[in-house]
Amino acid sequence: MDILDLNKDYWDNRYKNMEIGWDIGYASPAIIKYAETVIPKDASILIPGCGNAHEAKALLEQGFENITLLDIAPTLVDQVQKAFGEIPQLQIICQDFFQHEQQYDYILEQTFFCALDPALRKSYSSKIASLLQPRGILAGLLFDREFPSEGPPFGGNKTEYQHLFHSAFDILKMETCFNSISQRQGSELFIELRQK
């Protein structure tokens, strides 16, 4: 099966044309609740495929000090940079996720995994593991459902994800998310995976 060409131009055009149906307009409550209760304020955090960076805004308001946003779409990254301005707690990078090389204590997953062609999922798992500090954490949300049309978004299920992540991560949590937004209630898994 060929990998879909979901490249920089594809995503840049989606943002230019405001075709961003995945954007809920605010930070995911599940991710913010997790960050508030688990992540130290000085931990280094990466948000790949950051989109409009609603999670980053909420985390900065909570006092988090070391957030990196990563997205491949230049139009979006320019908008996000203008929205946030220059602040020392935030780094915004326009780059392909698979080319990124820094390491982090935490990586937050919010509608990035589901935007990647499923043929790239093993590469995603390996890359996430390489971007984490030893024993670092991947936390966030994955869809626990399939979608009727060819993606993105691309769905999946718990069994598939367990198989995908088990070699590089200890699965601390992978369960139905209790505080999903209403339109995704019952169709998301909250994950907390620790690099082995």
Secondary-structure map with pairings?
Layout: H1 8-16, H2 29-38, E1 45-48, H3 54-61, E2 67-71, H4 74-84, E3 90-94, E4 104-110, H5 121-131, E5 132-143, H6 158-165, E6 169-176, E7 188-195
InterPro entries: SAM-dependent_MTases_sf, TPMT
GO molecular function, one term: S-adenosylmethionine-dependent methyltransferase activity
Protein name: SAM-dependent methyltransferase
Summary keywords:
196 residues, alpha/beta
- First-to-last CA distance: 30 Å
The oligomerization state is: single chain
What would CATH call the class? Answer: Alpha Beta
Helix content: 25-40%
In terms of structural class, how would the helical and strand content be classed? alpha/beta
Number of E-state strands: 7
Strand content: 25-35%
CATH architecture: 3-Layer(aba) Sandwich
Uncertain stretches of 5 or more adjacent residues: none
- The number of helices is 6
What coarse outline follows from CA principal-axis ratios? globular
Major β-sheet strand ordering: 3-2-1-4-5-7-6
CATH superfamily: Vaccinia Virus protein VP39
Biggest β-sheet, characterized? 7 strands, mixed
Radius of gyration based on Cα positions: 16 Å
User: Mean pLDDT, rounded to whole units?
Assistant: 95
